[in-house]
Amino acid sequence: MASLSEAFKTFSRWSDSKTWLTVTVIERDQPEDVLAVRICGLDEDASLVGVVGKPMHSFAQFDVGQAQFSIEPDRIVVSREDVEWLIFEVDSKS
Question: 16-45 burial, b for 16+ CB within 10 Å, e for fewer?
Answer without folding.
Answer: eeebbbbbebbeeeeeeeebebbbbebeee
